[in-house]
Amino acid sequence: MFENTIAAISTSLQDGAISIIRLSGDQAIEITQKIFDRNIMNAKSHTIHYGFIIDQDKNPVDEVLISIFRAPKTYTREDIVEINCHGGTFITRKILSMVLSAGADLAKPGEFTQRAFYHGRIDLSQAEAVQDMIEASNNTAATMAIHGIKGSVKKLLQPLIDDLMDIIAQIEVNIDYPEYEDVEQLTTNDLLPKTNDWLEKIDHILSRVQTGQMLKKGIDTIIVGKPNVGKSSLLNALLEEDKAIVTDIAGTTRDLVEGQIHIGSVQLNLIDTAGIRKSNDKIEQIGIERTKQEISKADVILEIRDIRDQQNKNKDSMQTALKMIKGKDVPIITVLNKVDLISTPLPNTKDVSRGTIIETSAVTGKGMQELKSELLKLAGFSENQSIYMARERHIHNLLNVKESLKRAASYLNSTSPQLELFAEELRGASDELGEITGKISSDDLLGKIFSGFCIGK
Ligand code: GDP
Fold first, then answer.
1. Ligand 1 atom nearest residue 235's Cα
2. pLDDT at residue 168, rounded to an integer
3. Residue ranges per domain, the chain?
4. Measuring from each residue's beta carbon to the nearest atom of ligand 1, which residues come in under 6 Å?
């Protein structure tokens, strides 16, 4: 399918013990032979060969190990050669340039994976998972990525696509060949429960991919409360427990993130609104605006109070802020801080009508573990549930599937069911699902996806 042979440095370009230059294509072995001092033209697949890379004057450039993988049992399903050379950037670049002079083209970002996809070695969601694996910032993301590579998305969606296709085919036969008695005539009574069942499945998948997406970027946790209730102290206590470095992610949309902690394999991005509010009045205004924005984007809100205010039943400006917060569909944990300063425990702190309430002390560390596990619970994370790879593209597709199915159901609900329109919506839904696994995908879409890869993958 591809006429040229591509090459790239597949390891990250920095000084290290070993670097790998990878070639893929019909000419991979022949091109390597031109710069290698041992004969590998007849080398068997999946073998490793010791020798020297040599320049035009037969001078040795580097001592290397060369792995030969012959098509089709390779990553791209083409012949692949991997040159394991010494890891300095100079020598790695030099060998790459020799490979290019010998006839290979420099691979574009993601081109190896793109070839794997075009040759049917992996589907689109798996290809994307490879990219996620490269970019994975934490354990959970890496685990999700490996699930993606193994094709869990496909496994999940394929039965749904098959089911939709079956029904579409059956309706088409019903409409086009009404005289064909072998095929059962589908009615609203058959189709409506099925459609509702599909909708339920899509909702389930959506909720899991949304959790997956949240876990990949980390759970954005915003800390709000009056001055002096202990917001910064709690933030520091959480960070210290995790021995995390307070990160300053300047220049990103998350520039308000004060730090990241890891609970198990889940990352929490902590955003302290105290950092947003500054003393000056004008800045205060901006601060409030930004707080509102942050709240609307947050996955979880930590509302911090001084436990003694609570005791005095203070109705303060926090109530107004809370209303503002509660208008949003975001889980809230109320934290009653400074519990070390009261002598008798509070009655009724577990007042369920106010949501989750936890007593803490940033000074003694009391309640911190409880707070952490509650954060995970409210963020919708449970270790036992499977989480699926999530990308904006997938979510967009899934939401479209949902809309199509809803419209499909409405065609059944009308007094005279319109099966043709129903089938049309099912076709739309299955096309959208196909886009996730790459069955039906325009070149534009593919180009866009693969260009997000790093070179050498
Ligand atoms: P913020 O304005 O909400 O960020 O509050 P700070 O974290 O700056 O804390 C205000 C004051 O309360 C500081 O003097 C802290 O040392 C103190 N403080 C914070 N948390 C606790 C706590 O749990 N117990 C006690 N005794 N003091 C605390």
1. 7
2. 85
3. 6-123, 152-214+388-438, 219-298+300-378
4. 225, 227-233, 274, 337-338, 340-341, 361-363
Supply the pTM of this predicted model: 0.49
Q: How much distance in Å is there from the Cα of 320 to the middle of ligand 1?
A: 22
Atom of ligand 1 nearest to the CA of 225: 3
- Lowest mean pLDDT across 25-29, 32-36, 208-212, 428-432: 208-212
Compute, in angstroms, the gap from residue 307 CA to the centroid of ligand 1. 11
Question: 3-state SS of 300-369?
Answer: EEEEEEEHHHHHCCCCCHHHHHHHHHHCCCCCEEEEEECHHHCCCCCCCCCCHHHCEEEECCCCCCCCHH
- Separation of CA 236 and ligand 1 centre (Å): 10
Indicate the class that CATH gives domain 219-298+300-378: alpha beta
Which positions ≥6 away from 288 have C-beta within 8 Å? 277
Q: What is the pLDDT of residues 349-382, one digit of tens each?
A: 554 445 678 999 988 989 988 888 888 776 665 5
Residue 38: pLDDT over 90: yes
Q: What is 6-123's CATH number, 3.40.190.10, 3.30.1360.120, 3.40.50.300, 3.40.50.2300?
A: 3.30.1360.120
* Å from CA of 227 to ligand 1 middle: 9
